[in-house]
């Protein structure tokens, strides 16, 4: 906060709105085994040391798991299991027996284990990240250094990292983590999604953040993506003023979503667990627009039984009473592999047998889930709507709709996240009751840019006019068929982009519950006609930046306090 220190402001991409001021805590990087490590002469003693350290790592992960959220617990528990794997301990003993230095032996044994896991592909290959995490923790302890990763935040802080794995993000809470700033990462990565879900302001692609010394006070604005290093009292006051204006703009609105002139746009929550459902149900949202059911089963070795699934779905439906709950059937594969529904390695998993394609092969998995949904519907009489992920053709839509209807489930829909489905939405909607635009995947496939690859963030900007054109095509089909189309990708949670989407004709927007108030206020400030004019201006722009600038120039000035 000193006035003399060099004032530096730099930018990244804001992915979760809100402001914060606090000391920077840097995520500890992984340790490197020393190149000149002495050889092991007493293998038995070294083995005992390593085994003790692995046990410390396992108990540490277990302790964090006990205090973690539903999202984080299974991932931390899986790490603890890896640390206690007798095969890994034996592999390390073998390397120590050859005389390798203690951390070199751990590294060599883990790499051998990783190579084996990678050759098995699918879920096992994904576990390599957990194994290397265990390695880094064990090596750090052997070197007398702190374990790498997110440290325990004893005072509320802003966290800086090169990138954060979803597992790390899921362990954070808004009480101690005031904000997240990463050098890498993209706006639709699952880490960005989780930060918004947790209500933590976040900025990705902030190149240079790791050059800022730990402990330095930073001020961040997760809406506009701005970071001020060592801010002056004046700058802190400006940010506080912005926070107050934002709070004032948001105050009071808790009703149903609609434009200024009453065009309804339902405001819904994205959830991944029963815990999310309980929290979201307490918020003024009109229901759930996307229940990502695969998040329930990421850690499962075996398929959950009908009974288990029925219990979870019943819990979620009950939490929402008579409000709608749109459930997506398992979207397994690609970046969300499920061990019990793994079809083996693929060259291009994002273009492979994922989503509904996998469900059509593993009909046992699909039918078990649908039966459980039908049971929970019977038990609760809730407003349940079931949709399939990654639908590309009419044949797929028909296949799914027949199965859902055969079980007596009242409403069936599809996600539109493949350009083919957007272009031909009319035909697809003929077979189902509704559609929901998954703009995250729709963008990755429209731009041929991997959503997990932060370096491609410029191509993954949801203001991209090409994406808006594809969304418009899908909405035209919806209008022609008289069937509702919503949005459940991250685009729907941007209060400015929400206006464009409303202008294109979507009937609902689903997002992290924390984003709903800003979108509600934004809609209430503009008429439907203004939204349509903004949509036209955004589509007429040359690029994403031009589209956003055109809309902000047309909007009510209060909108600037909401982003
Ligand atoms: C999407 O693709 O926009 C979507 C909502 O699904 P997910 O992010 O889970 O792939
Ligand atoms: Mg998707």
Short summary:
The protein is α/β, with parallel strands linked by helices and 563 residues long. The protein has helices spanning 43-66, 73-83, 86-97, 102-120, 122-126, 128-142, 166-169, 190-198, 233-250, 274-281, 306-320, 356-361, 363-380, 394-406, 419-423, 425-431, 439-447, 465-481, 497-504, 516-524, 528-540, 544-554, 559-562, and strands at residues 8-11, 13-16, 19-26, 157-161, 177-182, 202-204, 217-221, 226-229, 266-271, 287-292, 324-328, 384-388, 411-416, 434-437, 485-487, 508-511.
Blueprint of the fold:
Layout: E1 8-11, E2 13-16, E3 19-26, H1 43-66, H2 73-83, H3 86-97, H4 102-120, H5 122-126, H6 128-142, E4 157-161, H7 166-169, E5 177-182, H8 190-198, E6 202-204, E7 217-221, E8 226-229, H9 233-250, E9 266-271, H10 274-281, E10 287-292, H11 306-320, E11 324-328, H12 356-361, H13 363-380, E12 384-388, H14 394-406, E13 411-416, H15 419-423, H16 425-431, E14 434-437, H17 439-447, H18 465-481, E15 485-487, H19 497-504, E16 508-511, H20 516-524, H21 528-540, H22 544-554, H23 559-562
Parallel strand pairs: 3-4, 4-5, 5-6, 9-10, 9-16, 10-11, 11-12, 12-13, 13-14, 14-15, 15-16
Antiparallel strand pairs: 1-8, 2-6, 3-7, 7-8
Keywords:
16 strands; about 575 residues; binds phosphoenolpyruvate; TIM Barrel; alpha/beta; 8-stranded mixed sheet; 23 helices; 8-stranded parallel barrel; Enzyme I, Chain A, domain 2; Glucose Oxidase, domain 1; 3 domains; binds magnesium ion; globular
């Amino acid at each position: 906060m000193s006035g003399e220190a060099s004032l530096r402001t730099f930018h990244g991409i804001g992915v979760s709105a809100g402001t914060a001021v606090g000391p920077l805590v840097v995520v500890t990087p992984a340790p490197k085994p020393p190149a000149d490590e002495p050889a092991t002469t007493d293998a038995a003693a070294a083995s005992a040391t390593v085994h003790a350290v692995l046990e410390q790592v396992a108990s540490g992960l277990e302790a964090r798991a006990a205090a973690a959220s539903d999202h984080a617990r299974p991932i931390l528990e899986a790490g603890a299991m890896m640390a206690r794997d007798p095969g890994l301990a034996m592999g390390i003993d073998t390397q120590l027996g050859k005389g390798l230095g203690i951390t070199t032996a751990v590294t060599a044994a883990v790499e051998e284990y990783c190579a084996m896991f990678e050759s098995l592909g699918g879920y096992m290959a994904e576990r390599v990240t957990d194994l290397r995490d265990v390695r880094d923790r064990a090596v750090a302890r052997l070197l007398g250094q702190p374990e790498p990763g997110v440290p325990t935040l004893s005072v509320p802080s802003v966290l800086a990292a090169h990138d954060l794995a979803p597992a790390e993000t899921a362990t954070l809470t808004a009480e101690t983590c005031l904000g997240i700033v990463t050098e890498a990462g993209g706006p639709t990565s699952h880490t960005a999604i989780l930060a918004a879900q947790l209500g933590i302001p976040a900025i990705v692609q902030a190149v240079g953040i790791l050059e800022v010394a730990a402990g330095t006070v930073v001020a961040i604005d997760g809406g506009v993506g701005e970071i001020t290093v060592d801010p002056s009292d004046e700058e802190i006051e400006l940010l506080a003023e912005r926070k107050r204006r934002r709070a004032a703009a948001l105050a009071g609105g808790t009703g149903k979503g609609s434009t200024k002139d009453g065009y309804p746009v339902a405001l819904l929550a994205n959830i991944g667990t029963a815990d999310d459902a309980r929290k979201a149900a307490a918020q003024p949202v009109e229901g759930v627009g996307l229940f990502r059911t695969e998040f329930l089963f990421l850690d499962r070795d075996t398929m959950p039984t009908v009974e288990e699934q029925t219990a979870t779905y019943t819990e979620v439906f009950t939490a929402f009473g008579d409000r709608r709950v749109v459930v997506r059937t398992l979207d397994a594969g690609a970046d969300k592999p499920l061990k019990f529904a793994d079809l083996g390695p693929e060259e291009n998993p994002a273009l492979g047998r994922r989503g509904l394609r996998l469900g059509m092969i593993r009909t046992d998995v699909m039918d078990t889930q649908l039966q459980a949904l039908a049971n929970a519907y019977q038990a609760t009489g809730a407003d349940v709507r079931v949709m399939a992920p990654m639908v590309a053709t009419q044949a797929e839509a028909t296949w799914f709709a027949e199965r859902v209807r055969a079980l007596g489930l009242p409403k069936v829909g599809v996600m539109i996240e493949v350009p083919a489905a957007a272009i031909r939405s009319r035909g697809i909607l003929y077979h189902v009751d509704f559609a929901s635009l998954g703009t995250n995947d729709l963008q990755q496939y429209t731009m041929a840019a991997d959503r997990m690859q932060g370096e491609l963030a410029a191509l993954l900007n949801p203001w991209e006019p090409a994406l808006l054109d594809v969304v418009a095509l899908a909405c035209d089909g919806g209008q022609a068929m008289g069937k509702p189309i919503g949005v459940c990708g991250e685009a729907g949670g941007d209060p400015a982009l929400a206006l464009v989407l409303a202008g294109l004709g979507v009937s609902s927007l689903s997002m992290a519950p924390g984003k709903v108030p800003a979108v509600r206020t934004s809609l209430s400030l503009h008429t439907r006609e203004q939204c349509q004019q903004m949509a036209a201006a955004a589509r007429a722009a040359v690029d994403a930046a031009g589209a956003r600038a055109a809309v902000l120039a047309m909007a009510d000035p209060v909108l600037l306090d909401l982003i």
